[in-house]
Amino acid sequence: MKYSMMTVGPVQENTYILYNEKKEALIIDPGAEGKRINKKIEALELKPLAILLTHAHFDHIGAVDDVREKWGIPVYIHENEESWLQDIKRNGSSFFHQHIQAKPAEKIIRKEEKLVIGGFSIDVFETPGHSPGSVSYYFRGENIVFSGDALFSGSIGRTDLYGGSQRILLESIHSRLMTLPEETVVASGHGPVTTIGDEMDSNPFLTGF
User: Does the keyword Hydrolase apply (predicted)?
Assistant: First the structure.
């Protein structure tokens, strides 16, 4: 599996396009600039299968409908944020004086599970705290986890938005992410990629937990 990271929108959100040797693709968190994302998919000559959302904050969903409608693919989201795609208060866009919505998701994640989509096998971890329905997608064979806004390089997600809790977030990180192999790559919703081992050693929010 390979992936391409695109930094999009005014708050520099990371959208990920994952693809395998069959050219099957998954899109994680298409946050903005839908036309640019679709052009990248076309340039790579990929066949998208699904959109996976780590959570439903506005900066992660702004291009969902553009990408979904272009390729005719389903959207996956956790049940705790199923309604947030249409709710501008809960998805945070009204807080930033924007009006960002997306149509309802086709696939609802109700528990931690293994998803098999085409040639991809994905472990879904519930990692709430940044928001109630935050999830991380772990690709065990490739040793990479897409953590959304739970864990960043040298930081953790903010918890001052609707439904956030720093206590719950820290518990999620330690029980679901810090238990992964230290060499696991962490591809976050903002900023550079990191590894579990680097965050264990130097993340100031985690070392004293």
Answer: yes
